[in-house]
Design brief:
There is one protein chain. By secondary structure, the chain is α+β, with helices and mostly antiparallel strands. It is built from 9 helices and 8 strands. The protein has an 8-stranded mixed β-sheet, with helices on both faces. Helix 4 packs across helix 7. The longest helix is centred in the middle third of the chain and has 20 residues. The two termini are about 35 Å apart.
Length: about 270
């Protein structure tokens, strides 16, 4: 569930922690019992127990392919010390840009947590997200067709304390917004947007720094940027994970032929 259209990472078996190994093994063997030609599971962490479980269930006929880099920040010490350790003078740049914005009329940062607040915050996020990506031909991250799903999911997640929307205002209007999920001691940055005319003032960067400072103040231990090797993520991150895809082939001649044909096509298409 969640693979593909909404860009999910860190997928895997959902279970109680003390039942994870058993649930993972049982699910893998249940999937193998369908005798399908092929099983493909994407977005798994490289150390997910589902990988060896699928390989065992399919008699060693599973292959693992690398997928995405997922940078994240271990929140250790204070925000100030963390910021000073960032490369390329990021601390000075962030403080200078934040100081300029703070002098603008109506400057404020809203941290929205309740279902009603999050719903209102998504209005700003969607609008800014569309504007930010319009100059590059549009985004496949949050399309108009997916907005109703996100609204419903955000409202439900806010009701249990998981969804958070941050909105930065200046000169009478929202200029940047960021949407993510707090679960336990971790925050996952999902999507953001900003006013293109305010890009030279780095409103997105200033807001990102604010959300990291909030995570430190909340006592969280991790800020996850999720998939993507964008340069800005690695300026803020101090660690990374990798996701993978596992593809297992069923028994018999037909699955073998399909797998062989697919491999030949991939090999021919590779320069």
């Amino acid at each position: 569930m969640g693979d593909g259209i909404v860009g999910s990472d860190h997928l895997g078996v959902i279970s109680r922690p003390d039942s994870r190994d058993t649930a993972t093994r049982l699910l893998a063997f249940h999937l193998a019992s369908y005798n399908a030609d092929e099983l493909e599971l994407d977005g798994l962490d490289a150390d997910d127990p589902l990988l060896p479980a699928v390989d065992a269930a399919f008699g060693g006929r599973a292959a693992i392919e690398p997928r995405y880099r997922c940078p994240f920040t271990r929140l250790e010490g204070s925000f100030s010390s963390y910021l000073e350790a960032r490369p390329d003078g990021l601390a000075h740049q962030w403080r200078r840009r934040k100081s300029w914005l703070e002098k603008r009329p109506g400057y404020r940062l809203d941290i929205l947590r309740s279902p009603a607040e999050v719903s209102a915050g998504l209005d700003a996020l969607f609008d800014l997200h569309r504007k930010r990506w319009a100059v590059e031909g549009g985004s496949d991250g949050i399309t108009p067709e997916l907005e109703p799903f996100h609204r419903d999911a955000a409202r439900r997640l806010a009701a249990i304390g998981w969804a958070v929307v941050f909105v930065l205002h200046a000169e009478g209007a929202p200029r940047a917004a960021l949407y993510g999920f707090r679960h336990g001691d971790r925050f996952a940055f999902y999507q953001s947007g900003y006013e293109p005319e305010w890009r030279p003032r780095s409103v997105g960067t200033v807001l990102l720094g604010h959300t990291l400072r909030w995570a430190f103040e909340e006592g969280l231990t991790e800020y996850d940027f999720l998939r993507g090797d964008e340069a800005y993520k690695f300026k803020w991150a101090n660690a990374e994970r990798r996701t993978v895809r596992v593809r297992a082939v069923g028994q018999g001649l037909r699955p073998w032929l399909r797998d062989r044909a697919r491999r030949e096509c991939v090999a021919c298409a590779t320069p």
